[in-house]
Design goal:
about 500 residues; Rossmann fold; 6-stranded mixed β-sheet; binds magnesium ion; 17 helices; binds adenosine-5'-triphosphate; alpha/beta
Length: about 500
């Protein structure tokens, strides 16, 4: 394979087993210089595992890895980085207490000639990279002060700070806004021109069509198809990804039933501006706005996760004091936060425990007896519906793929008795087949008279799924759209300061 024409990377017949799971089965993949290769597939298909093998995090059980035609074997991530393989992992790996700059250079601080750490030099490089990414932020501030999107940009900056020949981006866009994504794509195009080979993983097929040259599809750990991006279609990719055709991605829109008011929020204020709105039974109320428009902040105050300054919350006409998430759950609220890994999952606990966490009273009889059979039946039911493929209910949650971890928290609230559920970006990082199933589940919640708040950046999704849409701009609720006004253009108009 060695020589001028050999690909930058060639993975040949890669297999990987985890206890109870064969994550990869003899997968072949190649990457050329100056090429962006898209890697797509359902949650749990093996995308991250394959990339972790290339990046030296996991060791393969079978197969060979060639780098510029020479067989190599990275024993750890350091060796991969040294050889020029840089990776942005799906889950954030930043050290919260350290500054942006320290995170970017973690483990490889630049030293001056006297052997001292060259703080100024590192800050200068950090500033340059952040600037390239369009991030106007002081590199000395600690990472815990950043929002998820900014943290993701720091992860990307960290990967760019390494002079690499291969860049792996594992769902970099899952937390980014459109503007940040544009900046990232601009950077990718430049790196491509410089001859870098880039592997780009995403569940957003629009992105795959926008930025990649070629696409490789994985299904159940196998490479099932490889296409030139220009020569394939969304439909063809979806069929390859899920192994069948996907009809009716969105369920049929149902008429907006005006049920009883279930939630009323009056002048609620946390750190941002005050907000007032109401939610009815069987209604899906969308919250849209650019990143930083204050949607997540508002939901956190409503759920009692952040302190409220003032304002009132009424549940079915009765005033309630939601001063902690525990209290919120008792009152019948459910909340899928934006940053699930740190805010929602017990990673060391089993899938079953994570799923039934919010519905334990339903399975408890007096004297502390638990209705185990019922609990298992219900959890298994949602595992199937959400296509969470795992060896068993007792699998530790940390061993699940990123998207499947997300589905577990989603199932937690679907299993619970919550009457008002707040979903913050529920379909991010979720594969296309399951996304469609989630829309159907939302419809069912409507039929069961649950009030749903849907925070989402996917305007198509918002328009198809929500009955009403509230547009937020710089912390303020600027417009409510419904009926024929509920269109992506209208939403963008108001979200960007239009009158
Ligand atoms: N450390 C681990 N221990 C046990 N099983 C694992 C581990 N890492 C991954 N797996 C399993 O390997 C399979 C592939 O997971 P992987 O994370 O590669 O999927 P993915 O394609 O990246 O999915 P997603 O789109 O959800 O990120 C899954 O069944 C997952 O549960
Ligand atoms: Mg993954």
């Amino acid at each position: 394979m060695a020589g001028q024409n050999s690909p930058l990377i060639f993975l040949s017949g890669i297999s990987k087993n985890f206890p109870g799971v064969q994550a990869l089965k003899r997968v072949d993949l190649h990457l050329k210089k100056g090429e962006v290769l898209g890697l797509v597939g359902e949650n749990g298909a093996g995308k991250s595992t394959l990339m972790k093998i290339l990046a030296g995090v996991h060791q393969k059980n079978e197969g060979q890895i060639f780098f510029r035609g020479n067989e190599i074997q990275f024993k750890n991530p350091h060796e991969a980085i040294k050889a020029g393989v840089s990776t942005v992992y799906q889950d954030l790996n930043l050290v919260e207490e350290l500054s942006i700059c320290e995170n970017i250079f973690l483990g490889r601080f630049i030293k001056s000639r006297l052997g001292l750490i060259d703080q100024k030099g590192m800050e200068k490089i950090a500033r340059e990279i952040l600037g390239k990414l369009g991030l106007d932020i002081d590199s000395c501030i600690p990472v815990f002060r950043l929002g998820v999107a900014q943290k993701q940009m720091v992860e990307i900056a960290k990967a760019l700070a390494i002079e690499a020949e291969v860049l792996i981006l594992d769902e970099p866009s899952a937390t980014l806004s459109e503007r940040e994504l544009d900046n990232l794509f601009q950077v990718i195009r430049e790196l491509k021109k410089e001859g870098m080979g880039i592997i780009y993983i995403s569940h957003q097929l629009e992105e795959i069509f926008q930025i990649t040259d070629r696409v490789q599809v994985l299904r159940d750990g196998e490479a099932v198809g490889e296409k030139e991006t220009a020569e394939t279609s969304r439909e063809e990719l979806i069929t390859l990804i899920i192994g069948r055709e996907l009809k009716d991605f969105y369920p049929e829109e149902q008429p907006h039933r005006k049920g009883q008011e279930i939630l009323c929020v009056e002048e609620l204020q946390g750190e941002g501006r005050e907000a007032s709105f109401e939610l009815r039974e069987g209604e899906i109320l969308g919250f849209v706005g650019l990143v930083g428009s204050g949607r997540t902040e508002l939901m956190r105050v409503l759920f009692g996760a952040d302190r409220k300054k003032k304002g009132k919350v009424f549940l079915r006409g009765e005033e309630v004091r939601v001063d902690s998430p525990q209290k919120a759950v008792k009152l019948g609220f459910g909340y899928l936060p934006e940053e699930r890994k740190t805010q929602a999952l017990l990673l060391e606990r089993s899938v079953k425990e994570n799923m039934s966490l919010a519905s334990l009273p339903n399975y408890s009889l007096p004297l502390g007896i638990i209705k185990r059979k019922k609990e298992e039946e219900d959890t298994l039911g949602f595992l199937r519906r959400l296509q969470i493929k795992i060896p068993g209910l007792w699998t530790e949650t940390k061993n699940l793929s990123g998207g499947n971890q997300q589905k577990v928290i989603l199932a937690r609230w679907l299993l619970s008795d919550a009457r008002v559920i707040i979903f913050d970006e529920p379909t991010r990082g979720i594969d296309v087949g399951t996304k469609s199933e989630i829309y159907r589940l939302l419809q069912e919640m409507k039929e069961n008279n649950i009030g749903v708040i849907l925070v989402s950046s996917d305007l198509e999704e918002v328009v198809h799924v929500c009955d009403r849409v509230i547009v937020m701009d710089r912390g303020e609720l600027v417009k409510v759209l419904e009926g024929k006004d509920k269109r992506p253009e209208m939403i963008m108009h108001y979200a960007t300061g239009g009158e």
